[in-house]
Amino acid sequence: MDAFQFSRATTVSQAVQSGSGSQTSQQGADVRFVAGGTTLIDLMKLRVERPRIVVDINGLPLDKVEPTPSGGLAVGALVRNADLAQHPTVKQSYTVLSEALLSGASPQLRNMATTGGNLLQRTRCVYFRDTAHACNKREPGTGCSAIDGHNRMLAILGTSAECIATNPSDMNVALTALEATIQIQGVKGPRSVPIHDFFLLPGSTPQRENVLEPGDLITGVTLPPPVPGTRSLYLKLRDRAAYEFALASAAIVIKAPGGRVEYARVALGGVGTRPWRSLEAEKALVGRPASPASFRHAAEMALKDAHPHSENGFKVELAKRCIVRALTTATV
Ligand SMILES: Cc1cc2nc3c(=O)[nH]c(=O)nc-3n(C[C@H](O)[C@H](O)[C@H](O)COP(=O)(O)OP(=O)(O)OC[C@H]3O[C@@H](n4cnc5c(N)ncnc54)[C@H](O)[C@@H]3O)c2cc1C
Ligand code: SF4
Question: Which of 30, 198, 259, 297 is the most buried (most CB within 10 A)?
Fold first, then answer.
């Protein structure tokens, strides 16, 4: 690990000022906030992240889960994953989020990991984490070792010729199905970004994963009011039953009174370069019977643009079956 300066922010404005100390691009920016540290410190030890300044934000008053005036829920950026998963309102009204959080990492990690940090966790692509290999995300312009290398875990949707890394977060998939909004405080003031617009496709700039600018602090995530009559579910398929990232996962929010689908949100994990909302699957579901044939058709629509690589072709069928199983379970 390289030497770095360490400071603690006690107010949001102080954090933003400290965080904007650098005008460099996001990748290679030399200031980093640290929350739970479960992603950042690992990457600093591997010398993948090499910040000159680390700002501890754990003293900020961003650790509350509160109802919003419109009937939704405001989750502070420092709410721990374990606390959010067990929050009574989340368990009852945003079940998919609780299930997604509990499927991630281990109890010890969930006790440390925060909402803001989970949103911004980096890919688990092995080449990104190993400085001996070329990686466009870590060092733009060096090439992508995964495209012709080990890519079993990597993405089949939203890939580019520059990068095929998956967004590894389970929480982000549930937040996508719930149409969450990210609350940001920057040097120019606060702003809100719907999660669908927050994460960027890799394109020719895989080093840029989201719309944050240097100094931007995530202050929280807002969930809209639960849609009456919906059920939700998170299904995660992985190599072992615990402590493993998704090969494919599905977050479903659905309403099917009398066996006909009235409302559907479908988001996928483990297969996309960003948390993957499938508008195609949703369109294929609404107005149709909640039947095996409709579910399979929706799954086909969700994966119709899949672009597998040498080792991850199996994910196409796996993701389809994940969607069908999740929809079936959520509508029985
Ligand atoms: C062994 C292991 C297994 C795991 N398994 C899973 C899994 O199965 N599923 C899963 O989803 N995750 C998994 N994770 C990842 C884990 O969920 C993340 O490491 C964690 O959520 C990150 O949160 P943190 O608070 O520790 O982030 P940190 O490490 O503190 O920060 C992560 C990044 O976010 C930035 N940041 C943090 N907070 C803010 C903020 N408020 N505003 C702006 N920037 C901020 C930091 O600068 C850093 O770049 C695993 C991690 C490990 C180590
Ligand atoms: S897939 Fe992306 S993160 Fe992995 S080596 Fe290629 S550029 Fe790097």
Answer: 198
